[in-house]
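Quick one: co-fold with uridine-diphosphate-N-acetylglucosamine.
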Amino acid sequence: MDIYEIEGGFKLNGNVVISGSKNAALPIMAATILTDDKCIIENVPDLKDIKTMIELLEIIGKKVQFNNNTLIIEQTENINTRAPYEIVKTMRASIAVLGPLLAKYNKAEVSLPGGCAIGPRPVDLHIKAMKELGAIINIEKGYINAKAQKLIGTTLTLFGPAGPTVLGTENAMMAATLADGETIIEPAAMEPEVTDLGNFLIKMGAKIEGLGTSTIKVKGVKKLKGVKHSVIPDRIEAGTFITMVGACGGEVRLDNVYVAHINNIIDKAKEAGLEIETEENRVYVRKKSSLEGIEISTLPYPGFPTDMQPQFMAMLATAKGLSIITENIFEDRFIHVGELQRMGANIRVEKGTTAIIKGVNKLKGASVMASDLRAGAGLVIAGLSAEGITRVQRIYHIDRGYEKFENKITSLGGRIIRKKED
Ligand code: UD1
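Sure, here it is.
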């Protein structure tokens, strides 16, 4: 298995181009199931998760070509409505094929995703949505078996313990595009990735209103057509590079960013003391003096994203004074705390949901292990800012979500290499 070996202590300078959003690309790829026409999707990041979704679409009967960040997806005659455990277990977002399969073929068999490193992550709201749209669902041998004569529009309330669900809203929206009548999703997730999927569906001919608000209305149509679409930039990748500068120092320009999507991240980084200026698609980040501790509470969009929590924690580990981070979206999303402590961070977790960070002068390099994608990014940030050598194991988690990560960091002057584990 590959590891990252990082020599910390170097400032970052230069510019970095932010890739397309993984979390927007994945449901958009699933949405191509809704049409027999060819779809072209641009600005798709070249990542493990995207390859997993390609594999799944090929099993379902699509022909997929992926070159230069562009996907060409076409229908073959080998239609299959089963998403097997072997794929779904490696990527939870595979659940996004449930709604489109059911809408297009009136049946779907999708494996339950199972546990994952950031808590139990149930799919009850996805199942509830499909049932309320008229599907009959049986859970058998670890699979969601769904069938429907025809999906019928209705009002869906998809409120989980932490608020609306992102993939659940996306699944419901995709299923509703070909249903009879009108579907209202309330509260709908307002994440930019949901809006990007909605815009893709509208181009295909879907009738959708209310994207980016908490009420999405979908009027079913008979058929959707093939289209060309360019995926939005990855706001979490942009945020990751902002916190990297916060931890390491230096001055970096981020290109290909939608500033409006990362205002919640920029506000917190500024509050901690980073200097940030923005143009329409660019962000200039500069660290002039040491950072100060801040309070963060993760919330559904437009709140502060849970997917930025570990990276901010790594940055705040060396900020002056106290920081308090409350995780409201996922249980057990503090596995990185133990690893940061091994690097000398002073962090205490209370009641499993609040981390209290007392800034230390410097982190010290150590061998650490990535437990999930964003925790892995946080550990890389910690390693880049630490004194000495850090070895990050299990970087296959990081490969799921950051395109050319070490190349981008190296181009900014960070010292990071990919190696085979000894
Ligand atoms: C998406 C993102 C993920 C991000 C998360 C929250 C993708 C591919 N992944 O995940 O990176 O961390 O949003 O911003 O877009 N819940 C239920 N029942 C359900 C579904 C969810 O209780 O059926 C709960 C979850 O356990 C969690 C909360 O709802 O507490 C939010 O999860 P959700 O928005 O569904 O996350 P994902 O869509 O899986």
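If it helps, The CA atoms of residues 236 and 308 lie 7 Å apart.
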